[in-house]
């Protein structure tokens, strides 16, 4: 029986009108009382010519889909197309960036919903390299980017927001490409250790109320020591998940394991202090906190402006961040 959840609607705008598609295209057909995805165009020359003809005559009217196994190839083609349009000034760079962000967010949603796999990591690598290229080739403004990212706290949305901020910061300070990639992937998967935490635990108000420090179970109704242990262990569990893929270097794994460690030693899971925390994890800590403050939570339905979020980080959360990283982060935001 066909698994319809394995197919994703795509935008015809990003099909290649001149060359070959790098993925197969499907359409949905109703057969009896059921709907089924049927191959519309594979990678054969005959199929490719059909697609080009329909695109040139604007006769490709039905919705088209890809299989999730082709999402990495689709995203690469989409991002190449957007960057070409932007470079030729056929669309404003701001529009290209927004579309890139939205497409990447949907791909990361698939990754987060379906769990770890080879497709997951290959797609993540393409997403990170594309965003990294975006910031190295253009003068994207930090505050403008803050307005592009979504205002909600779905795990996949928050993760790609944090990756955007980390890669923008890393590009600004001139990190080498390998470090940028490690930072981007680590940021993308910094909360992957929360996947196995029961949903009823994640929904408890007191679990996330205190920034940077573990909550005290006795101070919050219905919050148990076991709940807090889930929170404390999620960076370590996230590192184990990525480490099991045998793909990423320690620099990436450290971002995941240490993104809740604080400069003053008040963080978790190991209460590391200062330069015991990896440099890339210190960057992720700032970006993670900033985006969390910028977006609403169940216990805090309002979201703070960029200025308000940074002010809280400097005052109420003083000591949690490496001063120089926070200073540069603020300067970039202020110069936008």
What would your notes on this structure say?
The protein is mostly helical and 336 residues long. Helices cover 53% and strands 7% of the residues. It has 13 helices and four strands. α4 crosses α7. The radius of gyration is 21 Å and the shape is globular. The protein starts with 6 loop residues before the first strand and ends with a helix. 40% of the residues are buried. The model has no long low-confidence stretch (mean pLDDT 82).
Strand element count: 4
Tell me the structural class. Answer: mainly alpha
Shape: globular
Strand fraction: 5-15%
SSE blueprint and pairings:
Layout: E1 7-10, E2 25-31, E3 34-41, H1 45-57, E4 64-67, H2 71-87, H3 93-114, H4 118-137, H5 142-148, H6 155-172, H7 177-188, H8 199-202, H9 225-243, H10 250-258, H11 279-294, H12 306-314, H13 323-334
Helix pairs in contact: 2-3, 2-4, 3-4, 3-6, 4-6, 4-7, 6-7, 6-11, 7-10, 7-11, 9-10, 10-11, 11-12
What's this, in brief?
The protein is mainly α and 336 residues long. Helix content is 53%, strand content 7%. Strand 2 and strand 3 form a beta hairpin.
């Amino acid at each position: 029986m066909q698994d319809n959840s394995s197919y994703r609607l795509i935008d015809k705008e990003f099909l290649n009108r001149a060359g070959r598609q790098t993925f197969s295209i499907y359409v949905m057909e109703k057969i009896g009382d059921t709907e089924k995805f049927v191959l519309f165009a594979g990678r054969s020359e005959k199929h490719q010519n059909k697609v080009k003809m329909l695109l040139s005559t604007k006769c490709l009217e039905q919705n088209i889909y890809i299989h999730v196994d082709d999402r990495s190839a689709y995203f690469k083609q989409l991002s190449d197309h957007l960057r070409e349009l932007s470079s030729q000034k056929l669309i404003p760079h701001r529009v290209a960036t927004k579309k890139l962000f939205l497409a990447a967010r949907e791909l990361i949603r698939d990754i987060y919903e379906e769990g770890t796999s080879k497709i997951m990591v290959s797609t993540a690598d393409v997403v990170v390299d594309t965003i990294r290229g975006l910031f190295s080739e253009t003068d994207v403004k930090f505050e403008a980017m803050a307005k592009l990212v979504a205002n909600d706290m779905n795990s996949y949305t928050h993760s790609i927001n944090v990756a955007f901020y980390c890669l923008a910061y890393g590009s600004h300070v001139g990190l080498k490409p390998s470090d940028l990639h490690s930072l981007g992937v680590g940021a993308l998967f910094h909360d992957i250790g929360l996947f196995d935490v029961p949903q009823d635990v994640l929904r408890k108000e007191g679990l996330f109320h205190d920034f940077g420090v573990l909550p005290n179970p006795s101070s919050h109704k219905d919050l148990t020591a076991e709940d807090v242990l889930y929170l404390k262990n999620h960076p370590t569990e996230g590192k184990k998940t990525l480490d099991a893929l045998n793909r990423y270097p320690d620099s990436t794994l450290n971002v995941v394991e240490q993104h809740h460690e604080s400069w003053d030693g008040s963080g978790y899971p190991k209460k590391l202090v200062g330069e015991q925390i990896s440099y890339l994890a210190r960057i992720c800590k700032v970006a993670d906190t900033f985006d969390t403050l910028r977006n609403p939570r169940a216990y805090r339905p309002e979201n703070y402006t960029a200025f308000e979020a940074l002010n809280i980080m400097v005052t109420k959360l003083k000591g949690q961040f490496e001063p120089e990283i926070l200073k540069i982060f603020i300067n970039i935001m202020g110069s936008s």
